[in-house]
Amino acid sequence: MLPGAGRFVPPESREGRASNLRVTALPYCRISQPREVPLNQLLEDVLDPQKRGPALIHLAMKRNTVPNFSLIVWQTPVIVTLILQPIVIDDRVRDEFFRAEIPQYLYPLVTNPRQSASFEKLRITSLGMIGFLVKELDLEAVQFLLRSEVVPLCLRCMEVGTVLSKTVAVFILEKLLSTEIGLEYICENQERFLATNQMLASMFTTLPHVRSSLRLLRRVIICFYLFSCNPRKEDSLAFYNSTYKTHLFSDSVSEITLYNLLPDGIRDGSCIYMFQDDTEIQNCVYQLLWNLGCIYNNNNNNGINSY
């Protein structure tokens, strides 16, 4: 027998063995077609960052099958903006984006006074788009937002929005204040400066100092710190009573000071105990008070001089 050759089996034996085998039929399986997702559901999924990618793919498949598809997508709030968001990363596209003043289409969605969940979702999404534009501190973006009165828009949102939308609005304000033109824009007008600082102080005072609002409170502190860093205050702002309480406007009749506008928790430095694990914000509070002349070298009262 050759190596590897099997044992010879007569044909009769093979037939007998085959006759003893039982063939079990598989159950009938019906292959279901993919579930057709309604257009309104896809439009809602686009608002969810985790579902946005697949939803946009399915939307593209429906463009030739759904009547008035383009009109429906165009008239659905925020959808077109979310589609444009990854496109405006290109600087060449961004220039055209601002020339067309497209961001202003978002402003009514942000200032809408309605507080239902659906309108709040629109508000947060629209603010997120504006925050995306200002995040990189692009000069043209900052100039456009200041020119189109985005500061009052953010203040309005801080008044009517939830903690999340307030946080995004303060983030936008923080980014504007971190630029020289943004800081100058807000400080050059007394009414604008007072409205901004009073809103920040009101939020810090009225919000519960709990974990869910710490992100917002943190950004409020940073905004006050940025106000105290005005590089022109030595030249254009006056002082009074031989102290370092800074006059924000030299021609102001009343004693309007950044120090007096600070909430008690920031003015006395006690807010640092809310951020025991955040050395960055603790240093920010101390630097803010130092800039206003509220800290001196003394071991008493944590080095904070209460006037």
From TrEMBL:
Superkingdom classification of source: Eukaryota
Xref: Gene3D superfamilies: Leucine-rich Repeat Variant
Gene Ontology BP term (one): mRNA catabolic process
A single GO cellular-component term on record: CCR4-NOT complex
Listed name of the protein: Cell differentiation protein RCD1
Organism: Carex littledalei
Lineage, broadest ranks: Eukaryota, Viridiplantae, Streptophyta, Embryophyta, Tracheophyta
